[in-house]
Amino acid sequence: MDCFSSCCMQGMVPYLPELMPHLIQCLCDKKALVRSIACWTLSRYAHWVVSQPPDAHLKPLMTELLKRILDGNKRVQEAACSAFATLEEEACTELVPYLSFILDTLVFAFGKYQHKNLLILYDAIGTLADSVGHHLNQPEYIQKLMPPLIAKWNELKDEDKDLFPLLECLSSVATALQSGFLPYCEPVYQRCVTLVQKTLAQAMMYSQQPDQYEAPDKDFMIVALDLLSGLAEGLGAHVDTLVARSNIMTLLFQCMQDTMPEVRQSSFALLGDLTKACFLHVKPCIAEFMPILGTNLNPEFISVCNNATWAIGEVCMQMGVEMQPYVAMVLNQLVEIINRPNTPKTLLENTAITIGRLGYVCPQEVAPLLPQFIRPWCTSLRNIRDNEEKDSAFRGICMMIGVNPGGVVQDFIFFCDAVASWVNPKDDLRDMFYKILHGFKEQVGDENWQQFSEQFPPLLKERLAACYGV
């Protein structure tokens, strides 16, 4: 959002209920310029529109914008498509009741649009899939949407840059459709592997004979890796047979060592997704992959580092105790990153989760370092929602405290605060928290505990008393 929305928006709110119908009316103006500007203006108020009852403004706005997507004028088509993508992002699942109607329009636009606007249409379809997620997985919707997408897919040559937005769009669609994408996955998967293979081969030839060959456009490889990630995430275990019949692991080994950071970033994301979906095929490569992951824990390249960190955490959860030989390759870098000033929030959270997961599978190896990371660990995870990743990380920290209780004594208040950040921990995790809190209280004695808990902010004191009786 630009500064208009944040500063002026509040001042506009009282007038919007009257203004909206007038602006929506402008979408039908006989001047194309007015229609296209009305699209843009209305998109600035998408957030407000979605906050009102749907029949009030969302429905009429959506109905008129969809008509404008099929406008005779190219500039209006473009403005309407962009505005609709913005509306989708704000409305998310509010759009579910209208999916059939929306898809009819977007699919009709496929036959109507010329080259440039097709690219914006792909974006609108991808954003729709991101916004409604699994609600798109209905036979009726798949029947409408997939044939035109696959027709375009078959039309475009491997060298055609128009593949980029189509691949991005399909990645969102595959993730949303989950098992609904199964009938289409094989040719899509094969082509992505081919795109990666071709790009790597061309890069190899270029590096050996730069005067004879052109440098490849590595974007082909990046979008193909991202679509493979979308397939792995959407299809889960169903991707197993596709991976088994391809050389993707060999290609991934090369991509993870590419000189271009964006290629490495996408490779590590795919590695993490394949680890979750079909670890059987990843496991034989772990000995080769782990040192590469370790060298990429370099916060100069934030996104590369972030994805490498996340992938290591996913590998931990699959490897279990067999992770032991690899802990030393990554632990010191992770501890260094979590203590760095000005590290972005997402990277801090991912680093904390991965340290927790390493400690979960190899507590003996990680626990001695507790005093070096426990404080930033607790502060970076206290603000994230309860979820599976947070669950495994906290189990790890509890196991490490079991091995090295002295390692948290200095910073125990931070641990208390992090425990209190849980809304609904699973019963056995709640028991782990209970034992640690009560163990600490018994260790120091009632009087010292009294003094210690005096430092707690009132809210923390209340929560711990209510949930854990300390």
UniProtKB/TrEMBL annotation:
Instruction: Tell me a GO biological process for this protein.
Output: protein import into nucleus
Organism for this UniProt entry:
Gadus morhua
A Pfam family cross-referenced in the UniProt record is TPR_IMB1
KW Protein transport (keyword) present: yes
One Gene Ontology term, aspect cellular component:
cytoplasm
Quote the protein name from its UniProt record. Answer: Transportin 2b
Q: Which SUPFAM superfamilies match?
A: ARM repeat
Q: Decide whether keyword Cytoplasm is in the record.
A: yes
Where is this chain primarily localised? cytoplasm
Every copy of the Importin subunit beta-1/Transportin-1-like TPR repeats domain together lies at: 246-347
- Please give the coiled-coil regions recorded for this protein: none
Per UniProt, the keywords (alphabetical) are:
Cytoplasm, Protein transport, Repeat, Transport
Which cell locations does it reside in? Cytoplasm
